[in-house]
Fold this sequence. Notes:
The chain is α+β, with helices and mostly antiparallel strands. The radius of gyration is 19 Å and the shape is elongated. The protein has one helix spanning 66-95; strands at residues 3-11, 17-25, 29-39, 42-46, 49-51, 57-59. The longest helix is centred in the C-terminal third of the chain and has 30 residues, at 66-95. The strands form two sheets. Strands 1-2-3-4 form a four-stranded antiparallel sheet, covered by helices on one side.
Amino acid sequence: MQITDVKVRKLFEEGPMKAVVSVTFDGQLAVHDIKVINARDKFFIVMPSRKNPDETYRDIVHPINAQFRSTLESAVIAAYEEALEQAAAEELEASYEEPTVEMAE
């Protein structure tokens, strides 16, 4: 199974949750609402889950082995870092004002 696309849907500046991401596998299966979390100076992912009646959470979908989890986590965090760089570049570009040139009469 190959990761064919990673889309960062939303970035957050405040709190431990830094992004919500969608991942496409083999161009045929999409998993939405994967969260990028920053805790203790480390980034990791949290898979989509639902709340059970007993107030616990259960993953809806998750990697079966550590190797694939590592592959998925690396791809998602790389996409998050790229999205951060792009957002910073867009912010810088938006704050840049063209110098005005006055014409001599």
